[in-house]
Design a protein that fits this description.
Strand content of chain A: over 45%
Distance between the termini of chain A: 19 Å
Number of domains of chain A: 1
CATH topology of chain A: OB fold (Dihydrolipoamide Acetyltransferase, E2P)
Number of helices of chain A: 0
CATH architecture of chain A: Beta Barrel
Order of helices and strands of chain A: EEEEEEEE
CATH class of chain A: Mainly Beta
Strand order of the largest sheet of chain A: 1-3-4-6-5
Helix content of chain A: under 10%
Largest sheet of chain A: 5 strands, mixed, barrel
Number of strands of chain A: 8
Oligomer: homopentamer
Chain lengths: 95, 95, 95, 95, 95
């Protein structure tokens, strides 16, 4: 999994029917020291994450293993909202 | 998923029979701020996307979860046409 | 899927039995403007592609969805020979 | 698989229920000569790895093939603690 | 698949039980012209490859399609020892 910050949303009315009802989040990827890496992903929200929150997301077929994403053409899912995150004995992020 | 702009098509008459009847789009990848990243993918069209449209596509095994791509040797599918896309409180793209 | 040019072959007599009888192509990756990107992949040939031809290949589990690659330890397959390829209203490649 | 050093942990109380009870490790990726590459991954711990240990992790759907990760939205798992690691006839790392 | 040179081994006594009995090879990735790219992967040996040999390996779920890797948390497998490898009409490598 990777860490990211929810930074926006995508709205798409014309889509594959299996994507109906899913919330699409724009997630900026964070490096291990919480800096933004420049990368991003559009991920389905499985945990009710809000703009600005630091989250963890899974990619690939693993992104289809949540209740809301099963059997859907979804390759990225936000599956946790991060409380704290420690690296080398220091708290990099605290909610 | 990633965002991209449909920029062309690929025609291939000699192909694996399971790919028959699928429309192949050349999609240029877009960064989070809608700039082109230089990357691209050839994706099967599952939503009737046209040249110039901003779309969302899924990759890997998730690309086989739409009705048109099931069980086909397809690793990328355009599964939504983007209406709007917001980042950091601003509308980056509006159809 | 990505586009590439068939540029060579790999011969391997000592291999996992499930790979017997498959033709292994060295495919140089092409950018969207048909320039070589420096990347390559060794892909199983599912369409009878010849040296020099421009092809489309699928990666990952999708590479196991052709008749010749099913259930084999194959993560890349050439599944189409490209006739034409258009980008931004221009024909980038014509067979 | 890739090699990495366990460098921290992630705590997330609000998450997909299928992730309950899993320990989340921040793993810095190591190059073949044991230098840090700058990359990282958050991986589920399947072997009781501690901070500072050098481990091996699997990614993608393979990360769901351990007892603790089966059918969970997990795309990276620490599945071995490395004892030694040799390259070009020299021991790069010894526990 | 990609090409690489077997350059070392990894020993790990504390691991996921499903990995017991598998030989773990450090494989340096080779570019299309046989130069080392700097990348590497730890792959399970499915063909009895020795140090220094040029091999082909598969990644992702395809790495679980050999007899020795089935249903194991393995995302890379050496599944062929390369005899020869031609690019642009020249033999880049011969065993």
């Amino acid at each position: 999994m990777l860490l990211g910050r929810v930074t926006g949303t995508v709205v798409a009315s014309q889509k594959e029917p299996l994507m109906d009802g899913l919330k699409l989040l724009v997630v900026r990827q964070l490096g291990v020291d919480s800096n933004e890496t420049g990368g991003y992903v559009v991920a389905v929200d499985a945990v009710g994450a809000g703009i600005g929150e630091v989250v963890m997301y899974a990619s690939g077929s693993s992104a289809r293993q949540t209740q809301v994403t099963q059997n859907r053409p979804c390759d990225a899912v936000v599956m946790a909202i991060v409380d704290t995150w420690d690296v080398d004995g220091e708290t990099v992020y605290e909610k």
